[in-house]
Amino acid sequence: MKRRSFLKAVSVSAVAAHAAGCASAEKRAGLKRVPVVSKPDGGGDPRIRGPFPILSTPFEESGAVDFKTLAGEARFVEKCGCKGMIWPQSGDSCDLLSVDEKLAGMEAIARELENSEAVVAFGCQGRGFEDARACAEFVEKLASKYKIRAAVISRPPDDGKTEADLEKYYLGLEKTVSRPIIIQTGGGVMYRGPAPSVDLLLKLARRNPEVFGYIKEESGDSNSRMAREVAEKPVIHTVFSAWGSYQWLYQSRRLGSEGVITERPAYADLLAKIWELMENGDPRGELDAAFAKYLLMLNISQFVAGDLRGGHLYVLRKRGVFKNLVSREYGRKDGKPVIPDAPIVRGLKLSQAQVDEIETRFASLAPYLRV
Fold first, then answer.
1. Which whole number is the average pLDDT over 160-186?
2. Model-level pTM?
3. What pLDDT is attached to residue 2?
4. What separation in angstroms does the CA of 332 have from each of 309, 340, 345?
5. SS3 for 262?
6. Rounded to the nearest 10 degrees, what angle do helices 99-112 and 129-145 cross at?
7. Is the pLDDT of residue 33 over 70?
8. Which of 6, 264, 303, 371 is deepest in the core (most CB within 10 A)?
9. Which of the 8 DSSP states describes residue 255?
10. What's the rounded Cα separation, in Å, for the pair 313 and 211?
11. Residues paired with 59 in a beta bridge
């Protein structure tokens, strides 16, 4: 037996023995391992799966987009071990940036990640199809100019009102790009139309399996839809968890999601670790503890306002990714969010008690940090 084969066999045996020992201990304690659904190959592009953090948009003190920091954030996520990332996609970056700002940010990321193995899914959407097409055409230019692994992600357009509108919209994107399109089933803050039905997603995937069949599932009944979508493999290639990633562990083990899309770049290395444990069967029983630590950080939003940014901006600054805690914000009218005519810029203010709590929680992540 060759040395490499021998070492691999020894390693496999050691892991198996450890797993057997853990199983025996669990049996004596009356515990049961969580059953994990099988995840058959969905075909498609094998790189479009795993944790794809949405990059948070960094701003200068003036409220201008900080493109240099955005590029550095993309590199940070790659170094943390995530195989993909997304920008612009969260509500504020979709609604509160101009098209020109989006295009400039896309190019900054493409330039930074040239020759990288990481997939960059660029957000192509807006108030209507013309916004989406402008971004999608630019993605094709970037893919020709830089050596990048580019994909597209798109939520329903703000002006979509019917399923027919959504089908027309996604078919228009198909004519514009020649690469995978991840369909986000939930609309943005300003969207009032329907989620694309599973039947529509299947119709698109059967029509063009090279482009469609990738889903970020975050509609209102995401769990029942996800179960059906996963059951439709290989017509559907990959179904990502979403909704802030709170249900990722459940959806991965019980429903078969194959990754997560969420604005949590501050914890990119922890996301990568959780994914690796999911992929290798969690032989040492570490997954629950790792995910619990992740939830501990997500819960920052309970004592610092701002679910996706808020106190997580402090973590990004602490880790040397961001320079400040500045955001653009929506306006309010009749109690509802609106897109303001001019940017509303505000810096996050934290009390010492809030800082101390974030620091204490972050310290518990030490075993998972890679950068």
1. 97
2. 0.91
3. 37
4. 18, 8, 14
5. strand
6. 20
7. no
8. 264
9. I
10. 34
11. 65
pLDDT confidence bin for 3, thresholds 50/70/90: very low
CA 138 to chain centroid, in Å, comes to 21
Q: Stretch 245-249: mean pLDDT, rounded?
A: 97
If you average pLDDT over every residue of the chain, what do you get? 92
pLDDT tier for residue 4 given thresholds of 50, 70 and 90: very low
What kind and span of H or E run contains 336? strand 336-338
Residue 6, both tokens: 């021998």
- Cα distance between residue 156 and residue 194, in whole Å: 9
pLDDT digit string, tens, across residues 354-364: 999 999 999 99
User: 3 vs 85, which has greater pLDDT?
Assistant: 85
- Amino acid at position 102, single letter: K
Query: By C-alpha distance, which of 187, 182, 134 is closest to 165?
Result: 187
Q: How far apart are CA 114 and CA 107, in angstroms?
A: 10
Q: What is the CB neighbour count within 10 angstroms for residue 272?
A: 21
Rg (CA), the chain: 21
Show Cβ contacts of residue 336 under 8 Å, excluding neighbours closer than 6 positions: none
CA distance 252 to 290: 14
Question: Distance between CA 197 and CA 219 in Å, rounded?
Answer: 10
**pLDDT (0 to 100) of residue 11:** 37
Question: In angstroms, rounded to a whole number, what is the distance separating the alpha carbons of residues 143 and 339?
Answer: 31
Task: Measure the CA–CA gap between 73 and 89, rounded to whole angstroms.
Answer: 15
Distance between CA 31 and CA 196 in Å, rounded?
41
